[in-house]
């Protein structure tokens, strides 16, 4: 028997599961989020929200006050590479940036969760939020899903999409919670190294599982 998606209209706002995605760089969390969106879920993309927050006039004004006009592009948008250079190896500056940006990102995430809970067309809510466990945001989620992919697959992906070397991937992962701990904290492990059609089928099964947990 084929997969029969559950009707969103049959779910109350309280039973729509919030699914938090875990995994290392290159595991394909955002890709899996898109597959789940195709199946009727709504995605809260924390990276996209952070980009929007950085370009708010009041935030840009604060950044220029801290670090000068060099943090802006010629068109007035935020130069994210320049911001990254300011904070990557400076914990104090990183903490200052996070104290400015994170409350605004979290507020927008909360707004979107409320919006999607009231949307009859939404089956579930996906939290695609890097460092979800590191920021202790798992309480916003009903279930946690670990997106798994072999190291060599992740290395190839980040080299192709981000220009990272294997050494750069390793360096960045050292600043995150170990993957074995993330996997152990998850309620569900999703293997993301198969044929695309297989992965899409797995996404349907994942959503059905999450809906069954919330019913």
UniProtKB/TrEMBL annotation:
Assigned keywords, A-Z: ATP-binding, Coenzyme A biosynthesis, Cytoplasm, Kinase, Nucleotide-binding, Transferase
Cellular location(s): Cytoplasm
Biological process according to GO: coenzyme A biosynthetic process
Highest taxon of source: Bacteria
A molecular-function term among this protein's GO annotations: dephospho-CoA kinase activity
Documented EC number(s): 2.7.1.24
Gene Ontology cellular component annotations, sorted alphabetically: cytoplasm
Metabolic or biological pathway, per its Swiss-Prot or TrEMBL entry: Cofactor biosynthesis; coenzyme A biosynthesis; CoA from (R)-pantothenate: step 5/5
InterPro entries: Depp_CoAkinase (IPR001977), P-loop_NTPase (IPR027417)
Catalytic activity entry: 3'-dephospho-CoA + ATP = ADP + CoA + H(+)
Broad class of enzyme this protein falls into: transferase
One Pfam family of this chain: CoaE
Residues annotated to bind ATP: 26-31
Family indicated by similarity: Belongs to the CoaE family.
NCBIfam families per record: dephospho-CoA kinase (TIGR00152)
Known function: Catalyzes the phosphorylation of the 3'-hydroxyl group of dephosphocoenzyme A to form coenzyme A.
Name this protein carries in UniProt: Dephospho-CoA kinase
Organism per entry: Algisphaera agarilytica
Source organism phylogeny: Bacteria, Pseudomonadati, Planctomycetota, Phycisphaerae, Phycisphaerales
